[in-house]
Structure formats: C-alpha cells, structure tokens
Design goal:
The protein is α+β, with helices and mostly antiparallel strands. About 35% of the residues lie in helices and about 25% in strands.
Length: about 140
C-alpha cells in the first residue's frame, strides 16, 4: 500500500533515488533545512521573474495548422511586448502538444502590475484561452 509517511504514531522511512545526490534542494530536505530551501527558492523566483515578484498571465491557443498557430502566437507576443511593460515568454508547446488533432501552444506574460494583465485579457480574441496567476505552466 502506498501513502504518506510519518502520519501516525510510528516513524516512517522513504527512499529517494537520484542521479544528483549533491543537489542542494535534496540535501536541504534530508537535513530539515526548510528555511534555507524557502530562501533559495525565493531568490530564484526573483532572479527569473516568477511570483511573488510578478503577476502572470498564461495565454493558450490550439489549431490544426502548427505553422499558423506559432505565427499567431508570435504576432500576439510581439504586440503585447511592444504595448506594455512586460516580459513575454514563448510561444512554447503545452505538455500535451497535440490534442484532438490540434496543436496546443502557449505564451506567458509577466508584469509587475496585475492591471496590465487584465487590460491584455480584454484585447484577446475569443479563440484564445487564458488563465491569470496560473498554478502551473505545464
């Protein structure tokens, strides 16, 4: 039976298999150095412009014609980038790049001010899907 460990009265054990045993995050977890993990993660998020230092908008579109899809998203990314004080990543394929015979791609917009993102949403064609403050980008 699989489940969570150390949830009852008995101590549990777990095994981690890795190609990188010297990974700082892994060692921080093993040594219960959660504050070090938190501070390191916060530093990385600031360096690469991720929340809580920016707000994010994920924009997705799917089409059968991959070339046209990428062109549309590139055009949208360029327009957004020119008209706003933002960082635009992509276009990139979704984790499941194809679904129901269509290609699925996305762009991610990062801004210091959420109002910029809500204004971008208002200009999106109805054929685009979006999520503000996405919980994941896969």
């Amino acid at each position: 039976m699989f489940g969570r460990i150390d949830r009852g009265h008995d101590s549990g054990k777990f095994i981690i298999q890795t190609h990188n045993p010297d990974n700082p995050v892994l060692n921080q977890a093993i040594e219960n150095r959660w504050k070090d993990f938190y501070l390191g993660e916060l530093e990385m998020r600031k360096k690469y412009n991720y929340p809580p230092f920016v707000f994010m908008l994920n924009i997705q579109r799917s089409l059968k014609d991959k070339k046209r899809l990428v062109e549309e998203l590139c055009k949208l990314a360029n327009t957004i980038n020119k008209e706003n004080n933002v960082i635009v990543d992509g276009p990139t394929p979704l984790l499941n790049a194809t679904k129901d015979g269509k290609w699925q791609y996305q762009i991610t917009v990062k801004a210091k001010n959420r109002r910029i993102l809500t204004n971008i949403i208002k200009t999106l064609p109805k054929t685009f899907r979006y999520q503000i403050d996405p919980s994941n980008l896969l």
